[in-house]
Design brief:
8 strands; globular; about 200 residues; eight-stranded antiparallel sheet; alpha+beta; 6 helices
């Protein structure tokens, strides 16, 4: 696991906590129900480590992928273990028959959730770096961790943000994952350090 200073970690946690708070408010309105999101846990780890970490929770998962470009670039992912993603869709669109494949309307529901959560996190990063991010259209993918993360990014760095979604009737565990190459990772840390110097 890659080491951050306590100050870097605290700043990133606070940064994403603000974004997650915005996402919770937007999701509450979307679901017509109170949504509480936990204070995010932030870790920088390797793709191999995050593959093992997520794989212990579910063999199959759904992933909303949002490519972004700006001060640093990469892919922002919102990942749900398969059973949890179907629970989220059920909250959005109602009952889903057992064994049903995700139909377009169900994919649209996941895209809507991903759009809210990922855009909130990217907006927080944009405010910190004082530069906008250009985002491509999000997509939904499914499969094991290697499939949803991508087999060609094993040497990339992952910013893993663990979030728990708490609704009145259930708790839904999800993960926001930023996958970046080593250059973007360094650019991100430099942006964090510049922000620390600015507020210090």
């Amino acid at each position: 696991m890659l080491k951050l200073t306590s100050l870097q970690t605290d700043l990133l946690c606070e940064l994403f906590n603000i974004g997650i708070g915005r996402a919770a408010a937007a999701m509450s309105e979307m679901l017509q129900d109170e949504v509480l999101l936990s204070v995010p846990e932030v870790h920088f780890i390797t793709v191999s480590e995050v593959t093992d970490h997520l794989g212990k929770r579910s063999r199959s998962m759904y992933c909303i992928r949002q490519p972004f470009n700006g001060t640093f670039s990469g892919n922002a992912l919102l990942i749900f273990p398969e059973d949890k993603s179907l629970e989220m869709v059920k909250v959005l669109i109602g009952d889903i028959p057992p064994g049903t494949e995700l139909l377009q309307v169900q994919r649209d529901a996941l895209l809507e959730v991903g759009n809210v959560v990922l855009n909130a996190c990217l907006a927080s990063l944009s405010e910190m770096t004082n530069t906008p991010f250009e985002c491509s259209l999000p997509t939904v993918d499914s499969g094991d961790t290697r499939r949803v993360l991508g087999t060609r990014v094993q040497n990339h760095v992952v910013l893993l943000i663990h979030i728990r979604f708490a609704l009145k009737t259930q708790n839904i565990e999800g993960f926001v994952v930023f996958v970046m190459n080593s250059t973007s990772y360094e650019d991100m840390l430099n942006a964090v350090n510049r922000f620390i110097a600015k507020i210090g």
